[in-house]
Structure formats: structure tokens, C-alpha cells
Amino acid sequence: MVKLNVYLSRCGVASRRKADTLIKNGAVSINGKRVFQPYIEVDEDSDIIKVFDKRISLQKKVYLALNKPEGYTSTLKDRFATLKVTDLIPPEMGKVFPAGRLDKNSTGLIILTTDGDFAQSMTHPAFEVEKEYEVTVTPVFDPKKIYILKKGILDEGERLKAHSGKMIKNLPLQKRSLISIVMKEGKKREVRRMFERLNYTIISLERVRIGNILLGGLKPGEYRPLSQKEISFFLKRTPKTIET
Question: Is residue 241 situated within a structural domain?
């Protein structure tokens, strides 16, 4: 026996937190009866469980690192997206979904998986997973403003804060700079919003690392399976207490 929200997560339907929402909204049924309690126990072998009237079952766990090209959408709920990151993965790999998001106009590392618990350990703020970006901006960046990025910037009622940052190089003749920035919180469009508040235009934004997973030599559109060491790094992490 296993709790319903845990079962949905193991089936790759969604993270445990999002599975709770699906259940509470009446999207899930057990043996033909709609249920609303995420913690109800189900029998994995005998119960018929459906989400939006489609039967689900356990599937092989898949963990992939993908170099997302520009123009691809990582939000699978966008009905109007013509290009989605999952389009780059063959159907035989299973029903993978993105663990986190990356802006349509941004490129770089994104993780695709069928494991909801793994996705939760990568994306929930309590796990404080480092995400490193290389950002090209114009005009030339003032290195002293890295202090401002680390102290935090207020935007749309949210405080956006970099964990760390450093200059990679300035290109005065091209009126641009390349900066490395590490984030932990995962707020929507946070990197772009921070630089825009400082009156810089982003020319390119590439994510090069998530935790211990590196983009490495993956070309745009290419993917590779994660190593057991990379997977274990996240599954063994303990969440931190979030202040309210």
C-alpha cells in the first residue's frame, strides 16, 4: 500500500506537491470513484487509478540532461507552444516531464524525468539547489553591481537574490559583458528580471549547471542519461526549513 500522492509522483504524473493539487481539484479517481484526499492509501497492484479519466501505472524511471535550444518551451501546460522540450525526446524514453523551467528565449541545461520525487528534490525552494547561468549583457557590466545582485533586488513585490556571481569577461569594443550568476530560489524569470532592473539588456542567457549536473559538451537539442552519482546527489538531499 502507498499514499495516493506518492503513487502519482512515482508514475511520473507530477511532483508530490502538484499531485496534491490534482487530487484536491477532483482530477483523480480510484476504481471509478473520484477522491479528494492526497494521503489516502492505494494498492499499486489491484486498484485502478485514473487522472483526468486516463489510467496511470508505474513506469520505468528516466533521468535525462538536455541542452534546451532557444525557442523551446519548458512549460508543458502551454497549449499554444509549437515547440516543447519533450518534443526532443523519443516517445520510447517514457512520459518525461521537465524538473523545473527555463525561459523560452533562454538556452542550456534542463532535466527531464519520469520521477516526481526526484523533480521535487530539484525544484522545491527548501532544497536550495544551485543553478548557475552564464549571462551576456549590454552595455558593459559594472563588476561592483555584483554586490547588488547578491544583496537582492525588489521587483514586483518579490526580492530577487543571487547566491553568488562573478565577472567572466568584459568586451568594451562590443559593448557587452559575460557574467556567471548562481541562483538558489527558482522564481519566475528571476535572472532576467534582476538584470533588467539594473538597466541591462540580456543578449543571451544559458544555464550551465544544476547542483552537480553540468551542461558540459551537450550541443543544443542533445540529451544524455544522468549518472547514478548525479541522481543520488538529489535523492539524498535533505530539505531546509523555509522561513515564513
Answer: no
Dump pLDDT digits (tens) for 48-105. Answer: 999 999 999 877 889 999 999 999 998 877 777 789 999 999 988 888 999 988 999 9
Q: What percent of the chain has pLDDT over 90?
A: 71
Strands (E), 31-175: 33-34, 41-42, 49-51, 54-55, 63-68, 97-98, 107-113, 131-138, 153-155, 158-160, 164-171
What is the C-alpha separation between 20 and 106, in angstroms, rounded? 30
Q: Is residue 240 part of a domain?
A: no
Looking up residue 148, the CATH number of its domain turns out to be 3.30.70.1560
Residue ranges of the chain whose pLDDT lies below 50: 242-244
Domain that holds residue 76: 63-126+213-235
- Integer Cα distance of 147 and 158 in angstroms: 18
- Say whether 103 is catalytic: yes
Active-site option among 103, 115, 117, 142: 103
Structurally, the chain folds into a number of domains equal to 3
